[in-house]
Amino acid sequence: MFSSVKPFEGQQFSALRKQCQQNRTLFEDPVFPAVDQSLFYHGNRIGKVTWKRPKELCEDPHLFVNGISAHDLHQGQLGNCWFVAACSSLASREALWQKVIPDWKDQEWDKQKPESYAGIFHFRFWRFGEWVDVVIDDRLPTANGQLIYCHSNDSNEFWSALVEKAYAKLCVCYDALDGGNTADALVDFTGGISEPMDLLEGKFSQEEEARNQLFERVLKVHNRGGLISCSIRATSQADMEARLDCGLVKGHAYAVTDVRKVRLGTGLLAFFKSEKLSMIRMRNPWGQREWIGAWSDSSEEWKRVSKSEREKIGVTVEDDGEFCIHKIWEEAVMRGSWCRHDDPLTNRSGGCINHKATFLQNPQYVFDVTKAEDEVLICLQQQDKRAQSKDGKGDNIAIGFYIQNIIQIIYVYMYQFYCTYQNNKSIQMSKPLVLMTKGRIKNLVFLSQLTLKSVLLFLNDISASDPYVVISCEGQKVRSLVHKNTQNPDFDVKAVFYRKKPKEPIRVQIYNQNILKDSFMGQATLSGDLSDLQHLHTLRLRDKGNRQNSDLPGLVSVSLTTSDVLTNI
């Protein structure tokens, strides 16, 4: 699995440990030394720091005490709750934490072979498309004999402190972890893709159906092994870490440790009534300051749940910071860069859509979606600039891109972009489209954009129908949603076709959804030719084939624009 792991700063764990064992010395990392420069960007802000090895802090140190758990971690004197929350999520998934903490049994302290211990550890993080192996020594920053930063419940358990040190080394210093995004850490722990969801923008508080759909989605992600975190957005610096009346903290990251439907009631009543409550369990990295409203640990609401059900979901009444309120992914990774060149055939820095003469010179990648009713998640990333903050160059730059679908064009401009499409297939990546010149792509003659406005059906034999529309051109299709129980559905379906065969028509077909087999209700065809200057079209529905009397009872209204300049639409 890790054949392509890259050693960070060229440090090979096995070779370094073997050298220390032969010399009977404990490893001292020259790349990340035990000095203030490894802690701070600019000067010491917390007073005297003493670096100590675990053996100097306790008699019997271990990586794990009674296994690894989301309850192990506590945030120290660093604003990295985002990182600690990610560690809590990581600890709940054995297959994932064993990627970050490889061959952990071999790294564990061995009482039977004390001479084998060399004070060296290594951890792995996914960075910009590859796994990086980071070596550290076990000297940890302390004050008054206590760990300053992340630590475990058990004073002799050190996995969290050591993982934090390795991540700080990757980012240049501990200060680099002060403030961040939990999703970024989860990506670095897993090699996966993150997807943000804003509950305010999604209006989930206003619509019960939207909340139900959100819960089902979160439940599916959890059951598939996804890692989830959440937070309440702080709108100002003064708002940061402000505690609300409910006990939650603004600007603070929480790890989601469980998602499930809890059966209410006790005994046979619970079994037969089968009333279930949708619940999400979260944990505060501080290990305290929990939610104090309904369904908090000791609230009256838990009396509605049987003892066996509470035990099954692991409900406790400790102030541990935790509280309640089968799919295989196919992955493809493409690398690219915006490179400036005077030759338009070589230039890969075309600017945004406002620069129409050069826009199509930007890097382009094509993928196909071939299976229906699933999701495609796309993430555009740039290399982490956190390591350059020491030199005042730590800000990410604004990047943007189009997703150009044969059906739709979507444009976004932000630091990172994530989008989800229903109508998934297995993703098939192709080489970049590079055959471009003067705003046109080779072999593409023009493009047409058609927007279906409405359909009017004259059906005397039935009172209503369940119509939907299929728009097609040159083998590409887009299908609308079904409109229930209507003869006059209002559509707002847009299709964009990049066309190679000017004589091929654009076809709009209407179908009626039935239980056994959908029935054809009529079609209209348009040439989409450059000579057609009419924008709005109202067309009579016709039958399939070329029969003379093929008119059917219905009309379709569409708008159509065609251009031979591919950036005009």
From TrEMBL:
Keywords: Hydrolase, Protease, Thiol protease. GO terms for biological process: proteolysis. GO terms for cellular component: cytoplasm. Residues 426-543 form the C2 domain. The keyword Protease applies. GO terms for molecular function: calcium-dependent cysteine-type endopeptidase activity. Residues 26-323 form the Calpain catalytic domain. The active site is at residues 81, 252, 284. InterPro entries: C2_Calpain, C2_dom, C2_domain_sf, Calpain_cysteine_protease, Calpain_domain_III, Calpain_III, Calpain_III_sf, Papain-like_cys_pep_sf. It comes from the Eukaryota. The keyword Transcription does not apply. Belongs to the peptidase C2 family. This is Calpain 5a. It comes from Sinocyclocheilus rhinocerous. The lineage of its organism: Eukaryota, Metazoa, Chordata, Craniata, Vertebrata.
